[in-house]
Amino acid sequence: MTSYLLRGVSLLGATPRDLVIADGRISDKPDAEEIIDADGLVALPGLVDLHTHLREPGREDAETVETGSRSAALGGYTAVFAMANTSPVADTAGVVEQVWRLGREAGLVDVQPIGAVTVGLAGKQLAELGAMATSAANVRIFSDDGHCVADPRLMRRALEYVKAFDGIIAQHAEEPRLTEGAQMHEGEVSTRLGLTGWPAVAEEAIIARDVLLAEHVGSRLHVCHVSTAGSVEVLRQAKARGVRVTAEVTPHHLLLTDELAASYDPVYKVNPPLRTASDVEALRAALVEGVIDIVATDHAPHAVEDKECEWAYARPGMVGLETALPVVLSVLGEQWDLIAERMSRTPARIAGLTGHGTGLAVGDPANLTLVDPSARRVVDPAELASRSRNTPYAGTTLPGRIVATFLRGEPTVLDGKAVK
Ligand SMILES: NC(=O)N[C@@H](CC(=O)O)C(=O)O
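== Dihydroorotase ==
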């Protein structure tokens, strides 16, 4: 295993120093075989994404575990959690083990499968949560993401079930009866465009119900892709009462607004939909404050035919792994410790993922990423490693370039390029 000396690297913005990586760990050895000139580069603990769609098995034309892993490594990630809405659905030990094994074979990031809460994501009957938990994939997070676990009794049962092993139910909060036929955020813009709206209350009502259920059961709830100011208030109150709830926000909900739907370009169609400028402001403040715990990408690759069509027929979702850190940098500025907290340490802690999200101290596994904060990049969809091209940032200039990523001391990205 090659050892590396990162010359003049800044740990989270601190005074530059040399950092040695040897035998897969941060080392106190004085030198190494390879020297990387890290002048001007900032080291962050490898990013951890609790919400990624890798599409394999079933839609390998949109993404595979390998292409998604490469996309993640290029984005500075060392671990991603793969959502269960594949085909077949990841609702059995067999499917989660398959995804886990494919991740190991790709070897670019740690791929941790998320199991479905209900059989086939159909919301009728609990999936084999225990079998997935005791499988080789060691599943601890369960989600029907893409669908809401709308039935309150089923949600209660799921929360009760995972309590035994301190598991988490990650909810896609969307009351389906309030979003039938919805195409975009319900508000002034949807009225002007004549598109059916997805009201904020459809998210807020489910979060309010679920924090009460989680409180009643004493279980852990995680709220996926929080998108409204009202949801932030529900979460704030629940956390103040001590409910065991955590929440994520996506980079796109921190930056983009529903005004973009006026272009009728389906690249801006996403679930939950882009909201208003005041929602964006509330989400940013909640992320800084910690009412929203983490940033998660909701990387949702789609094949061209599913995206480049009429708005109403387009699938919702945006790719996000390769632009997440630049978007967050543009929103938060160079608050490195906060970025490490929201994109690495806290997601690792929520998931109980050891070896990731560390302090980069001597002895820690060398899972880290090097960023050049002074670089600017114009996003070119053709350059993405993801198999899909549905980025809302095409042509946008974003700050920060991910120069290198190390997974347990092995580079997965060097000079901004994937190593394999
Ligand atoms: N977030 C999205 O817009 N899309 C997700 C699933 C979903 O939440 O609809 C996808 O799997 O494509």
